[in-house]
């Protein structure tokens, strides 16, 4: 059976083929570019789980991304040291693992639209209606590209930002190192391939990297090049479109995300008043293997914060141990689960997820946010769609648009560069809407609806 090699997996060459600067490795440059980018800043006004603005202690997506990067770096440091001790990598390469994972963690939510996952669903459902003949602007999109928009995916949008939209537009984007792109890519395949694999197999047999798709066809070439440079295991389907087994560091990025959003959701649930102190204390105490009765003199909030920290530490150890135990399966591409799911903390995480489903995701405030977010996004899409319809009538010549459409483009700074057919037009529209913050989406919705 084919096996991936760490020497190739840690490839830090970039799309622009610039060599690493001695004072700053390419993965450090990658982390800096992500941190200083506009899409990253906008995460500060995008919902994580709990509605924003009512409580300053609640996390938004920017804080979440920073926390995931912190946990990912810790996991990567331990795994890097272990790989060096096992002689799987050179001792001087141990630090690369932590650096690559940290950069990928910073970027992991970069493509998420406003209002969380409900925003993804709203964009997808709207696109499904328009793609099926309701709008003349978007007729003619190839059938194999419909699914990209009907099941709009924030992960693919994030890859588009990294490789095309931000910094060097259409010339490699942020020019991320290959290993960072590999660690970022949870779903290393296109939309149609993911759809086909799920249709052809029972739900429990679907490869973990096929549950969604990770790139649009417009960015396939960027991942093709990175995957080839890293030696990822490729499979060819009947349509001759390749898909790959996950880069091993994806599992570390995913583990950091799983740890943060599960454990931290409990802390935020307590802060928001959706979960009782006793409930959160019980879940975190068991998870952290930490007694809850030795914290005299502290407030309840401080006790929960302490238990959250202990729980994260315990989860990191469990995920590192799981990676070590499953290392051979991960390298040959046969591992198809999450590190949390096969770790010694799996039952504890399952209990947290069940509690979140029953009490957090159904909380009235969250439900109201999702309903409002859906309607806001649809109003924005409906209000901007006529611009593309008129643009299509003018053979995609922006300078021939009528005055109102030009005013609207200027009012919202709609980017029409490179729009020359239905496919690029729909990407332009979804680029704009998915990049909005919650607050800005509401403002534009109000403007468009008068």
Give a structural overview.
Helix 5 crosses helix 12 and helix 12 (248-272) runs antiparallel to helix 14 (300-325). The chain has helices at 6-9, 26-35, 38-42, 61-85, 94-107, 116-134, 146-150, 154-165, 178-184, 191-200, 220-230, 248-272, 277-288, 300-325, 327-332, 339-342, 346-360, 364-393, 403-412, 422-434, 438-449, and strands at residues 234-236, 242-244. The protein folds into three domains: 6-247, Orthogonal Bundle (Hypothetical protein af1432); 249-360, putative deoxyguanosinetriphosphate triphosphohydrolase fold, CATH 1.10.3410; 365-449, no CATH class. It has a two-stranded antiparallel sheet. The model has no long low-confidence stretch (mean pLDDT 89). Helices cover 61% and strands 1% of the residues.
């Amino acid at each position: 059976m084919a096996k991936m090699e760490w020497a190739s997996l840690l490839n830090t060459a970039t799309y622009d083929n610039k060599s690493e600067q001695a004072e700053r490795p390419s993965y450090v440059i990658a982390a800096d570019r992500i941190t200083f980018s506009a899409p990253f800043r906008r995460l500060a006004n995008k919902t994580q789980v709990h509605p924003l603005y009512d409580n300053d202690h609640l996390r938004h997506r920017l804080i979440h991304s920073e926390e995931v990067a912190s946990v990912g770096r810790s996991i990567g440091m331990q795994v890097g040291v272990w790989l060096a001790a096992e002689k799987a990598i050179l001792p001087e390469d141990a630090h690369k693992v932590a650096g690559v994972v940290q950069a990928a963690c910073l970027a992991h939510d970069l493509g998420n639209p406003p209002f969380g996952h409900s925003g993804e669903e709203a964009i997808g459902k709207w696109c499904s209606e328009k793609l099926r003949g309701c709008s003349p602007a978007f007729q003619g999109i190839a059938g194999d590209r419909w699914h990209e928009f009907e099941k709009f995916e924030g992960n693919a949008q994030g890859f588009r930002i990294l490789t095309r939209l931000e910094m060097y537009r259409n010339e490699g984007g942020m020019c991320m190192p290959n290993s960072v792109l590999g660690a970022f890519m949870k779903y290393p395949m296109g939309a149609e391939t993911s759809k086909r694999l799920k249709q052809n197999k029972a739900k429990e047999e679907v490869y973990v990297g096929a549950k969604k798709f990770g790139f649009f066809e417009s960015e396939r070439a960027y991942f093709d090049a990175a995957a080839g440079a890293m030696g990822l295991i490729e499979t060819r389907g009947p349509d001759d479109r390749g898909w790959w087994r996950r880069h091993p560091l994806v599992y570390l990025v995913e583990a950091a995300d799983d740890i943060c959003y599960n454990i931290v959701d409990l802390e935020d649930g307590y802060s928001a008043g959706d979960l009782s102190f006793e409930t959160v204390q019980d879940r975190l105490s068991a998870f952290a293997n930490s007694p809850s009765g030795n914290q005299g003199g502290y407030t309840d909030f401080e006790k929960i914060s302490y238990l959250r920290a202990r729980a994260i530490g315990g989860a990191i150890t469990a995920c590192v141990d799981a990676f070590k135990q499953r290392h051979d399966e991960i390298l040959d591409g046969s591992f198809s689960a999450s590190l949390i799911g096969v770790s010694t903390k799996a039952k504890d995480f399952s209990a947290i997820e069940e509690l979140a489903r029953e009490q957090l995701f159904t909380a009235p405030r969250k439900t109201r946010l999702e309903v409002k977010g859906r309607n806001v996004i649809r109003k924005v899409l409906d209000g901007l769609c006529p611009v593309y319809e008129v643009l299509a009538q003018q053979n995609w010549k922006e300078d021939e648009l009528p005055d109102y459409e030009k005013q609207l483009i200027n009012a919202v700074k709609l980017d029409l560069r490179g729009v020359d057919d239905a496919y690029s037009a729909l990407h332009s529209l979804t680029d704009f809407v998915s990049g909005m913050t919650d607050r800005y989406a509401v403002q534009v919705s109000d403007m468009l609806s008068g």
